[in-house]
UniProtKB/TrEMBL annotation:
Phylogenetic lineage: Bacteria, Pseudomonadati, Pseudomonadota, Betaproteobacteria, Burkholderiales
GO cellular-component term (any): plasma membrane
Family listed: Belongs to the YccS/YhfK family.
Domain spans labelled Integral membrane protein YccS N-terminal: 69-348
Protein name: AraE family aromatic acid exporter
InterPro entries, alphabetized: Memb_transporter_dom, YccS_N
Length: 887
């Protein structure tokens, strides 16, 4: 581990930035009241409201964060007011605290930030338990708490609005770091000594983390884009948007680089090829770390790492294998390593492109993907139905059970606090509420971390107090502990508790010097609160497996939708193939035209970009045939966009958003026009671009398969209609890709939580583990096959009907898996038959004299990927039929 890099990542991260913001926002009112007005109690009361609101201050869109903190402050005001009024008599206090705890615990049903709001409002209620108030005093106390909450809400909003671009940078950098960690996990597969099961465990773990951080970055970056439809695009945000699109596509490259690792290890165990692949992945991951750090520091990324040696070494090894006839002797193994090389080579090009984006000047507004309202489909809605709480008033609801557990635990903790001779008895209740989570596994995990962190924090504080006698130095340590406590809260809870205990105990020591009794009480309160929480977690448990049935079905359904979006499935694959054949032929002509107009690539680049060169289609393609080819290219090159030479990148970006509108022409005229590139005048080109862009914007909401005749008849050109439909298909593909990753992450997280529960409540462990692995394998192969599925059908000289039949079978397996149907008795025979058909398809293409060798190579690769998909979908169907979980 490079500690200097990790320290810089932390210092520039959103975690440290957030910790500093929270520490200042919470401490400022307390310091002001203490130093200016000499009113310590008032300072603590206002700080209580600020502490409650800061719980909700987590990375996310500014608008939602403001509303959530505001709701937290208002609900906390009413909770503190009700508790304060009831504090005059023990009976009324009990009659108020118990139902209020239940209601505040039940609001977790609304999801998103409501669990944090639930805890924050419970915190405001708990700190009011210790004092007795008259109704007027209760109103004044609750008002000061509300003031503290409002102060922090607008403090955090002001700072976040001031640093909005910085916040986007931090979220994007976290996504880049997680992508690098995922690639590092991939690198372990090429280490022959690494255990495959452990490699898969780490891969799934990093995939979940990558999806989480990608989703967080998407939520922050994309939510600001609809405001930009007026026409003025902030160049800095355009740069971040491009980097976000790049990192999403890069993650797709890495996911698609999956292969049959047992086969590769056995076939190349004595070769240096595996070492080269491992080193290539590790170097690329390190390069991504440098780019992420450059984004964090708002600096251009420097090219410190070169992967040319590994790329050339792998290329040399593959060439030797070709000369020794490996493609004929072991076609499966050769296709596997060749496919990975292509993906990783393209990934390195995209990494280079990301580095260039960090160096882009502030006047660049070109974007990787056309920005329009369709992007709102990628952002999850945060609207909630306020009647939802009433539908959860049943024991079948996990949230209802959680509310019951918290209510009982708070009641027991409150009773013990009154019974024991403690200075701050509410610490017991506070510890209980902090630890108790809706799931047993999270409660158990937090319980252990809380005890360890408190013990270390108390011991460190005792040593510090005995050694350091200077109050000003202790105040500095206290503030630093506060910053670190909030900075580490989201990713290292144990360390966060250490610093929390330290700053709380130092604060009490500075207010009442010379007494170490509070430190002992803090430890006792923590132990008692942890014991109550772990005991309450066994009441009305809702074990994780009861929630996983729906998650399994959601993941299978998302995988099937991803297959359909990649394949443009419409129920008639053969018809779809015929429909696109002419367009793909025209696309080949347009691509050739683009190559003649762009500067020549280097020989090394050209060798590997022949299939991917469609991304460089020029904006001046003016026939309907060329426009249709472009529409196909927009989708087909979603993985290959980064592999285009620098000279073609600007053309590709413009081509996506701006195909000129032209009058319709006869097929013969279209074919004749397609033979030679058209050189329009700058003025006419600009007019055409504006016309097509406006028409495409109107049509961008057209769904796949929906008739566009009405829209076209209203004046929009056919070319713009095709481009708009292609954009919608591209968005549909990207949306399906996002959904399959999120569904996988949801199931993976639930599986991890289940494995922390008692063994008696761990159901179908082997089947669920294999289902996760095979689902990731299938999604990876779909990702890798998507560009080939769009580029090969119209190449001519061969048929890919066996591919369509195989994909039909894969889709059928996923559909049947959702219903829990076991594989058919003749499933293996069907697999063998489809395998023979795929092999025969490749052989026929090899024997055909009019099929280029590059196309044959792509066909071999597609056949290999189809076999992998077929095997994975069969295992998914088998696992799903054995898993019997509540729906």
């Amino acid at each position: 581990m490079r500690y200097s890099l990790e320290i810089r990542k932390f210092i520039y991260s959103q975690y440290f930035f957030g910790g500093l913001r929270i520490a200042l926002g919470v401490s400022l009112p307390a310091v002001l009241m203490l130093t200016v007005f000499h009113n310590r109690d008032l300072g603590f009361t206002i700080a209580t409201g600020a502490l409650g609101a800061c719980v909700v201050d987590m990375p996310g869109p500014l608008k939602h964060k403001h509303n959530e903190m505001l709701a937290c402050s208002v609900i906390g005001f009413f909770a503190a007011l009700a508790t304060g009024i009831a504090s005059a008599h023990p009976v009324t206090l009990w009659l108020t605290v118990v139902p209020l705890t239940f209601v505040l615990s039940l609001i977790v049903v609304y999801g998103n930030r409501w669990p944090q709001i639930s805890f924050a409002t419970l915190f405001m209620m708990i700190v009011t338990l210790e004092d007795q108030f008259t109704p007027m005093q209760a109103l004044v106390n609750a008002s000061w708490i509300l003031l503290g909450g409002l102060w922090y809400t607008y403090w955090a909003t002001l700072i976040s609005r001031w640093q909005v671009y910085r916040i986007e940078q931090q979220a994007l950098a976290e996504s880049i770091f997680s992508c690098g960690e995922y690639l590092m996990a991939r690198a372990r597969f090429y280490d022959p000594d690494a255990d495959l099961d452990e490699c898969y465990r780490k891969l799934i773990e990093t995939q979940i983390a990558a999806v989480e951080r990608q989703d967080a970055a998407r939520d922050i970056v994309l939510r600001n884009l609809p405001k930009l439809q007026s026409g003025k695009l902030d160049p800095r945000r355009a740069k971040l948007f491009n980097l976000f699109i790049n990192v999403v596509d890069l993650h797709e490259f890495f996911v698609g680089a999956h292969t049959d690792y047992p086969l590769v290890r056995s076939a190349f165990s004595g070769s240096d090829l595996l070492i080269f692949y491992r080193d290539l992945c590790m170097k690329a991951a390190t390069d991504l770390e440098e780019i992420g750090l450059a984004v964090l520091q708002n600096e251009p990324a420097r090219a410190r790492i070169s992967v040319k040696a590994e790329l050339r070494a792998i290329e040399y090894e593959l060439e030797l294998m070709r000369k020794h006839g490996l493609p004929e002797k072991n076609p499966e193994a050769y296709a596997a390593v060749a496919a990975v090389f292509r993906r990783l080579w393209s990934a390195t090009r995209l990494i280079d492109r990301m580095r260039r984006h960090t160096r882009t000047g502030d006047d660049t507004t070109e974007t990787e993907v056309r920005i329009d309202h369709a992007l709102s489909r990628f952002v999850s809605s945060r609207r909630v139905s306020y009647m939802q709480i009433f539908s959860n008033l049943t024991m079948a609801s996990p949230s209802f059970r959680h509310a019951l557990r918290v209510t009982i635990a708070v009641g027991v903790g409150f009773w013990l606090g009154r019974l024991l001779p403690l200075t701050n008895a509410y610490w017991i209740v506070m510890t209980t509420v902090i630890i108790l989570k809706p799931g047993y596994s999270l409660t158990k995990q937090r319980n252990t971390q809380r005890i360890i962190g408190t013990a270390i924090g108390c011991a460190a504080t005792v040593a510090l107090i005995l050694i350091v006698k200077e109050p000003h130095l202790l105040m500095i340590v206290m503030f630093a502990s506060m910053v670190m406590s909030y900075s580490l809260l989201l990713f290292n809870y144990t360390a966060s508790v250490v610093f929390t205990s330290s700053f709380v105990l130092l604060m009490f020591h500075l207010l009442a010097p010379g007494s170490l009794r509070l430190i002992g009480e803090r430890a006792i309160d923590t132990v008692v609160g942890c014991a109550i929480a772990i005991a309450a977690s066994h009441l009305f448990p809702y074990w994780e497996y009861r929630l996983m049935g729906k998650l399994v079905n959601d993941m299978i359904a998302a995988t099937r939708n991803y297959l359909e979006a990649s394949w443009w499935w419409n129920g008639k694959p053969a018809a779809a193939q015929a429909e696109n054949a002419a367009a793909v032929k025209a696309q080949a002509g347009a691509a050739a035209s683009a190559r003649t107009q762009a500067p020549a690539e280097t020989s090394h680049e050209a060798q590997h970009t022949k299939v991917l060169v469609q991304a460089a289609l020029p904006a001046e393609a003016q026939t309907e045939a060329q426009a249709k080819a472009l529409a196909d290219a927009v989708f087909a090159d979603s993985n290959a966009r980064a592999a285009v030479a620098t000279a073609g990148e600007v053309q590709a970006a413009k081509a996506v958003a701006s195909v000129p509108s032209v009058p319709s022409v006869q097929p013969a005229q279209a074919a004749q026009t397609a033979k030679a590139p058209v050189q329009p005048s700058p003025a006419s080109a600009d007019t055409a671009v504006k016309s097509a862009t406006a028409a495409a914007a109107k049509l961008s909401s057209v769904s796949v398969g929906e008739s566009t005749a009405a829209t076209t008849g209203s004046g929009a050109s056919a070319a713009a209609t095709v481009v708009a439909t292609a954009l919608d298909r591209d968005f549909r593909y990207r949306l399906a890709r996002k959904n399959v990753h999120i569904a996988f992450a949801n199931l993976g997280q639930a599986f991890q939580r289940m494995m922390l529960e008692p063994k008696a409540h761990q159901k179908f462990v082997a089947e669920l583990n294999d289902l996760l692995i095979q689902s990731h394998v299938l999604a990876s192969q779909i990702t890798a096959a998507a560009p080939l599925l769009q580029s090969l059908p119209g190449a001519g000289g061969f048929t890919i009907e066996p591919v369509h039949r195989t994909l039909d079978t894969v889709r059928d397996n996923l559909t049947q898996a959702q219903g829990g149907a076991p594989p058919r008795e003749n499933q293996q025979e069907q697999i063998r038959q489809l395998t023979r058909e795929l092999d025969a398809m490749v052989v026929a293409a090899e024997r055909a004299s009019n099929v280029p060798s590059e196309t044959v190579h792509d066909l071999k690769l597609l056949a290999h990927q189809c076999k992998q998909m077929l095997a994975a979908s069969t295992l998914i169907r088998k696992d799903a039929s054995l898993i019997h979980l509540p729906a």
